[in-house]
Design goal:
Blueprint lengths: L8 H14 L17 E5 L4 H12 L3 E6 L3 H10 L7 E5 L5 H13 L6 E4 L17 H19 L14 E5 L26 H22 L1 E2 L2 E2 L2 E6 L13 H14 L3 H4 L1 H8 L9 E4 L2 E3 L3 H4 L1 H18 L3
Bound molecules: NADP nicotinamide-adenine-dinucleotide phosphate.
């Protein structure tokens, strides 16, 4: 019998189950004193799943969290408060990551309000089962899963909302929620980054891996650009949280969703457990002065060689700028 393609949904679920038991933790738990009191964090896709758990746990470690999402913000805020987070530690921030204009507007508003971010967690992603177009005429999965992160980070840096030089010397951190799926990607087509995606549900996990490879490649290029003489002015980290019980497969047809939810309930991690590597990358003192660190759950690993390749990183950066400038002139 031919082996299952890694981008087949059954292979992806099995890989998640195997990882649950195979990946051994290599890092210690955060100490209680590794806190973010007085710091400001922004978490994208913060209203549900991993983003919500991360927002609550960052707030529990003292941060004021801007919970950025485009739906269910009030419900997420109420839920965070019901879990004991003080009301003023979680602030809903409406942004539609599928809309490049919405991202630009939010960054301008933050800049006008004098916001300064210490931690940025790029977490939002979707797994749509058909192709949909964004207000700028791009594919929604391409924009939410990759391009929105490029636009958000570069605009936040340009506006000084993500400062390169903090007077208190605390280096800001950008944490990318990637996935081991970046290793399964067939590769990047940088000539036509914005080419229409085939919306076939059969190919959606292949595209998911490709956008995660884009994200990891962008992250490592960002890490190179944000260091001077090997010293990071903003640290850049990435991780795969492992398979989690979330709503990410919400668009799957009902006959597939029911068995998947049963497997998720039994064998996948709760997001409040799976957020440990995100919290580690955001809070660990051992990471001060470091950049370009990738964790698979609580085990450090190298990213795929394609993501670490500086020439690919440069080419992806330029291709992303070209796509953006064609849609929203600077
Ligand atoms: N679940 C897993 O097993 C797994 C494994 C490895 C990696 N990951 C990664 O973990 C991250 C979080 O995933 P999750 O499982 O927690 O999924 P999730 O529960 O679906 O959370 C994703 C969040 O992103 C939000 N979002 C979607 N489109 C948006 C938009 N246009 N603007 C603003 N926010 C938007 C969603 O809002 P709505 O709910 O309103 O759409 C949702 O709150 C993703 O990067 C995913 O790739 C997940």
């Amino acid at each position: 019998m031919a082996p299952l393609d890694q981008n087949h949904p059954i292979a992806a679920v099995l890989a998640g189950v195997v990882d649950r038991f195979r990946v051994r933790r290599k890092l210690p738990a955060l100490a209680p004193e590794e806190r973010l009191d007085g710091k400001v964090a922004l978490v994208t896709g913060g209203a549900s799943g991993l983003g919500f758990a991360t927002s609550v746990d960052l707030a529990r470690r003292g941060a004021r969290v801007l919970l950025a999402d485009c739906r269910d913000l009030d419900r997420a805020h109420r839920r965070a408060v019901s879990l004991g987070v003080p009301t003023d530690r979680i602030e809903p921030l409406h942004v539609d990551l599928a809309d490049l204009v919405s991202i630009g507007r939010v960054v301008k508003d933050l800049a006008r309000g004098g916001a300064r971010l210490d931690r940025l967690v790029l977490n939002a992603a979707i797994v749509p089962t058909r192709a949909r177009s964004t207000p700028q005429g791009l594919d929604e999965m391409f924009v939410v899963n990759y391009l929105s992160s490029f636009v958000l980070v570069t605009r936040l840096l340009d506006e000084g909302v993500l400062p390169r030089d903090r007077p208190d010397g605390d280096v800001p951190r950008v944490v990318f929620v990637a996935s081991e799926a970046h290793r399964w990607s067939e590769g990047l087509d940088l000539e036509r980054l914005d080419r229409p995606r085939d919306g076939s549900p059969r190919r959606v996990l292949a595209w998911y891996g490709t956008y995660k490879l884009m994200l990891a490649t962008f992250a490592w290029e960002l890490a190179r650009r944000l260091q001077v003489g090997g010293v990071p002015r903003v640290s850049v980290f990435a991780l795969c949280p492992g398979a989690m019980r979330t709503n990410i497969a919400r668009e799957l047809p009902a006959p597939l969703r029911a068995p998947l939810h049963a497997v998720m309930r039994l064998l996948f991690q709760d997001p409040f457990v799976a957020d440990e590597p995100v919290l580690h990358l955001a809070c660990s003192r051992a990471l001060e002065g470091h950049t370009a660190v990738y964790l698979h759950k609580m085990a450090p690993k190298d990213v795929d060689a394609r993501a670490a390749d500086a020439s690919v990183g440069r080419a992806l950066w330029e291709a992303s700028e070209t796509v953006i400038h064609a849609r929203i002139p600077p």
